[in-house]
Design a protein that fits this description.
- The protein is α/β, with parallel strands linked by helices and 351 residues long.
- The strands form 2 sheets. An 8-stranded mixed sheet has the order 1-8-7-6-5-2-3-4, sandwiched between helices. Strands 9-10-12-11 form a 4-stranded antiparallel sheet.
- The protein is built from 14 helices and 12 strands.
- It binds pyridoxal-5'-phosphate.
- Pyridoxal-5'-phosphate binds next to α3.
- The site of pyridoxal-5'-phosphate has 12 residues, from α3.
Length: 351
């Protein structure tokens, strides 16, 4: 980052510190469009791309621009717990769309939408993390992806695809994004530099049909330049153009794969046979099903020096009491292995 700033600042001088364009820095968008095409072999145009202040910002602004108070918005459950908080900042009728070990249950969602229709209502949006899910680590199957797109298209429901973990893939390749599979206008795809570069940058992007990008660009927030940081965007553009982004991505993937493998081996060694857990092919998370109440277990686990997030945090309707989420992104392998041992011990004491 230091080197990228040192390249960019003499080139741009004071321009780097001025208000930027409403859609975000053009050089970053140009790099991103080429990069996305390399990552998923799917053409995306500059007019379909907007720089955001990360996915949290994008979810919030989508609610502001695309929903009315009282609109029905589905969120898969379990889902990223902080997205639930952002959605709840808006006066929406938030409803759970249940997910199982293969991701969102599209047939259950279709039934819920049919019930809504009988009340004379339609869903406005669905929030989902179909690839390397937070908190479960699973990815939606191709079959369910296609069924979901068909359903959304038929119902006029916008799918908000939170695609933040796409580049952190450890086995094979990541599944095709909903954005790349769907006709234009059905999916808004949210990407972020938070996981593939650094969260403190507060930078991400959004892909949507050009008309929606225009609405963002013409919003009051962006008109006042209250959108994203032009300066951070220009540093990241220089960083990415130098080839450092691709190099860093390879390092992240190799290291996180090592951490995932270590954690999965240690769970197999230390957890009671009554537990089961996901084996993520990408992302940060392992989701563990246990026979105990994981909120009640947490103080005992913390006293033993190991932490986790209880499963109920990720559900809109309070389910998930016996599940928990582990993240393998932060700690080195030896600490992950020790953490698994301590978690296993705490579980065995209660079981
Ligand atoms: C699914 C998901 N979406 C979004 C975010 C946050 O993204 P950002 O930092 O770009 O706001 C996270 C971070 O944990 C996440 O797991």
């Amino acid at each position: 980052m230091q080197r990228a700033a040192a390249i960019m600042l003499p080139q741009l001088g004071g321009q780097a510190l001025s208000y930027g364009a409403g859609a975000g820095p053009g050089t970053l968008i140009a790099w991103l469009v080429g990069h996305l095409q390399r990552v998923e072999a799917h053409p995306v145009s500059i007019t379909e791309t907007l720089i955001t202040g990360g996915n949290s910002d994008a979810i919030d602004q989508l609610c502001t621009l695309c929903t009315q108070p009282g609109d029905v918005v589905f969120a898969e459950s379990p889902t990223y717990h902080l997205a639930i908080r952002i959605l709840r900042d808006h006066p929406l009728d938030l409803r759970p769309a249940p997910a199982d070990e293969h991701g969102l249950q599209v047939d259950v969602l279709a039934d819920a939408i049919a019930r809504l229709r009988r009340e004379g209502r339609r869903p406005r949006m669905l929030y989902t993390v179909p690839t390397f899910h937070n908190p479960t680590g699973v990815s939606l199957s191709d079959e369910r992806r296609r069924a979901l797109i068909e359903l959304a298209e038929a119902e006029g429901m916008v799918i908000v695809e939170d695609d933040v973990y796409r580049e952190l893939v450890y086995d094979g390749t990541a599944p095709a994004s909903l954005w790349s599979l769907a006709p234009r206008g059905v999916v808004v795809r949210l990407g972020s530099f938070a996981k593939s570069l650094a969260p403190g940058l507060r930078l991400g992007w959004l892909n949507a049909e050009a008309a929606l990008i225009e609405r963002f660009v013409n919003s009051g927030l962006r008109d006042s330049a209250g959108g994203t940081s032009h300066f951070a965007g220009m540093v990241v553009a220089a960083f990415c153009e130098s080839g450092a982004y691709d190099e860093l991505g390879q390092r992240f993937r190799a290291e996180y794969r090592r951490r995932r493998d270590t954690l999965l081996d240690a769970l197999a060694e230390h957890l009671p046979a009554t537990c089961s857990w996901t084996k993520p092919a990408g992302g940060y998370f392992v989701w563990i099903n246990t026979p105990v109440d994981t909120v009640a277990l947490l103080p005992r686990a913390e006293a033993a020096g190991v932490g986790y997030v209880p499963g109920s945090k990720f559900h809109i309707d309070g389910r998930g009491q016996t599940a928990l989420r582990l993240a393998f992104s932060l700690y080195p392998p030896d600490q992950l292995a020790e953490g698994a041992r301590r978690l296993g011990q705490a579980l065995k004491e209660v079981v």
